[in-house]
Amino acid sequence: MDILKLIGRDEELFVEDVLKFEGELASLIKDGRFLVIGGAGSIGQAVVKEIFKREPRVLHVVDISENNLVELVRDIRSSLGYISGDFKTLPIDCGSIEFDAFMRCNHYDYVLNFSALKHVRSEKDPFTLMRMIDVNILNTDKTIIKSIEAGARKFFCVSTDKATNPVNMMGASKSIMEMFLIKRSLEIPISTARFANVAFSDGSLLYGFNMRIQKLQPLSAPNDVRRYFVTPKESGILCMMACLLGENRDIFFPKLSEKLHLISFSEIAVKYLEMLGYEAYVCNSEEEARDSVDELAKKKKWPCYFFESDTTGEKDFEEFYTDDEVLDMDRFLSIGIIKKQGDIDPEKLDMFKKSIDGLKQKGIWTKSELATLFYRMLPNFYHKETGKYLDEKM
Questions:
Q1: Closest C-alpha among 151, 348, 157 to residue 251
Q2: Among 52-66, 129-143, 223-237, 373-387, where is mean pLDDT lowest?
Q3: 131, 175, 206, 386: which sits with the fewest CB atoms below 10 Å from its CB?
Q4: How far apart are CA 287 and CA 192, in angstroms?
Q5: Is the CB of residue 135 less than 8 Å from the CB of residue 96?
Q6: If DSSP codes are grouped into helix, strand and coil, which group holds residue 368?
């Protein structure tokens, strides 16, 4: 599948920047000891492969998905082969006591954290939302502390464009996470990256297109939501460069250009079907789409249901930085850098952690209580609540 063609591009991003800094990247990796947390997800796997092919001294990968770790190993062995360094994968939860023990037994130069709840749909109930807070904020802070204790030289944590002027709880959780990163950056150099949707990443709508075809089911997508897309490889390169070349508190993001432009999910669905030899057949309802798969497939057509988005947390447009953030647009050709300052109110972060602990000790909490806490942390947070969620869509 030609992902670039699907997202409306002919050329990969970051090619010139990688060529310019390849010597420095290769040197840092060859002598480096790396731990990648959440490394079996789509972005994590892409980063692991970029590091692996430059032959690090140590590359350990931790993830709670045992199956995805197995596939990562099979993929690497089948594409890149072997290295003389120590490559190892471990199915461990970074929030567990097993991970704590593991960190006490190992030393790394670079720790990269890709563990995250990334779906807007994860804010639909107070229980999943609390887990999002644990994973995206509290566990991230914990992994930084463990990295400092283990003598790490650098910490990297992936963020998202949705942390910029967030309209959903997922984006807000990442924005709060960035506040914790700034606090910890006084103790260890930290860099991060914000970027667009990763095409065909696990659990994404485009990934779902593959599943729908395999299961002989219709495609469904919004026709009024336009997004920037990067490939898994591009996401891996951006994160690798942010980790190794980023200065303390730097946030890397892809520069907007003719190579990176907005495209709707429905446009991609039509192109996707064309690549598979099918013509998209637009249906008027989910029911019509479900009932017509067998008949249309025989005619090399595929039923699609396209709709206007009305679910909670959908942002009208994507942005990588705010007007009041300081930028460096000169260091790289296709990468911009947000230069974050070290001024953060530690009492505000302590209040957040104590409030979350209090809700947990109470044993029950509401989405409203968590939302109120988010508003206290992010006074300009605009939560776009519609009462409808993606789980209510096909």
A1: 157
A2: 373-387
A3: 386
A4: 43
A5: no
A6: helix
Sign, Cα dihedral of 261, 266, 267, 273: positive
Dihedral of the alpha carbons of 164, 157, 118, 183, in degrees to the nearest 10: -60
3-state DSSP assignment of residue 199: coil
Of the CA atoms within 13 Å of residue 150, those in its CB half-sphere come to: 25
Query: What span, in angstroms and rounded, lies between the C-alpha atoms of 173 and 182?
Result: 14
What's the distance, Cα to Cα, between the start and end of the chain in Å?
24
The whole-angstrom separation of Cα 290 and Cα 205 is 17
> How do residues 16-45 score in pLDDT, each as one tens digit?
999 999 999 999 999 999 999 999 999 999
Instruction: Give 182-230 pLDDT, tens digit per residue.
Output: 999 999 999 999 987 899 898 888 899 999 999 999 999 999 888 889 9
Tell me the CA distances in angstroms from 124 to 129, 238, 350, 387, one per residue in order: 7, 31, 26, 9
Instruction: Note the pTM of the prediction, 2 decimals.
Output: 0.93
